[in-house]
Amino acid sequence: MTSIITHKTKRSTDDIISGAIDRQQSWREKRRSFTRGFLRKINVFAAQQNNQQKTKPAQKNVAQDENGSVLRAYWFPILCALIVIAIAVFVMFVKPNAPVKVIVPNVPEPIIKPVETSKKDVVVVSNPTFDIVRIEKNGQIVIAGRSAPESNISIVVNNQVVATERTNANGEFAYAPTNALKSGNYVISLINADKNEKSADSVFIYVPENYKNAVALLMNEDGSKILQSPQSSNQDLVVSKIDYLDTGRMVITGRALPRLRVSVTLNNKYLGFARVSDYKNYGLGVNVGKLKSGKKYTLVVRLHDSNGTTIATKKHEFVLPDDNDCDDTYYTVRRGDTLWVIARNYLGRGILFSLIADCNDIKNPNLIYPMQVLQIPAE
Q: Model confidence over 282-323: pLDDT tens digits?
C-alpha cells in the first residue's frame, strides 16, 4: 500500500519582491498608455512641441523624452499632493478662526412641587358634608362629616341648632348625644359657623318607637341615597283601601315607612310606584282598564328602599263585585294629603281637584283636614 505525501514549499522573499515589481511596472505601463491617449486627444500644444523637438540633436531628444515620460507618468499624484498642500496652508494660515456656535435647545425648567409629609390623604371641602348618619338600637344618633380644618360646625335639626362641633386638623368632626331621639321625623343639615356656609345635602331620619326600623336618607338635588336601611317586616307596610272606579282607574292607599317607595302589580302586571310621605302615607292611582265582575284578581304591593331592594310585601286577592257605583266612593283625608293628589289618584288628573271640592262643598281647596271624609264624584 502506497501513501501520497504532499509537500508545500514556502515562497521565497525574492519571488514576492519580484512579483510586486512586475505588478508595479505593469500598472505604470497601463497608466502611461492612458495618459498618452488622453494627451493626444486634448493637448494640441503637446503636438506642436513634438514637431519642434525633431530639429534638435538626437541625444538631447532622448534625454527630454525620458524626463517627459516621468512627468507624464506621475502628473496625477503630483497634482493631488499640490492640492492637499494648498488646502493645508489655507486652513493653517489664511482662514480666520471663527467662533464655534453651539445651539442649545430651550428646555423649560422643571416644576418642583412640594411634597406634603403631614396631613396625608386630607380632603379639604368648603361646605360641610355628611359621612355617617346612624340611629343606634337605643335611639342614640351618630353624625359624622367633614369641612374645613379647625372650623366650627353647627348641627341643625328641624331648623334648630342643637349643637356645635369643631373639626380637627383633617377637617373631620363627629356628634353623638347621650339622649335618645323621640319617635318621629327629623331633617338634619350642617352649617359652617365660621364662614356661614350651609351644607348642600340634608338627611331625613324616621325614628319609630322600637328604633330597629329607623330610616336615614341623604337628600340632594340628584335624589336620595339610603344611609341606614330599615330592618322592615310586613307590619311596616299596610294597604288601607283598594278602590276601583267605572272609568277603569284603580286607587291603592295605605301606610308605610316614610320617604321610601311602594310599587304595585296586578296579576303580575306592573302598574306603577308611589313615594311614601313624611307622615307614612302613600296613594297610587293607575288606569287598569275594564275589570270583569266576578273574576278573581291578585294585587301585590311591595315596599322598596332607595336602592330598589324589596323590604316588605303585601298580597291581596279580591273579586270584583257585580255593581260598582263611583258615586258611593269616599276617601278619608290623612295628614299631608292635598286635593290635587287625591284628584290625581282617583280622577287621573290633579287639575280636576275642583270637582271634588264642588262635590263636597269645600270653599277653600287648599284647606282640608285629617279624618275628613270626601266623596269622590264621577267625571
A: 888 888 888 887 788 888 999 887 677 888 888 888 776 665
Share of the chain above pLDDT 90, in %: 1
What is the model's pTM?
0.45
Higher pLDDT, 137 or 143: 143
Range of the domain at 147: 129-228
Q: Evaluate whether residue 122 is within a structural domain.
A: no
- Phi/psi at 58 (nearest 5 deg)? -70, -35
Query: Mean pLDDT in the chain?
Result: 76
Instruction: Answer yes or no: is 366 within a domain.
Output: yes
Whether residues 218 and 309 fall in one domain: no
Amino acid identity of residue 188, one-letter, is I
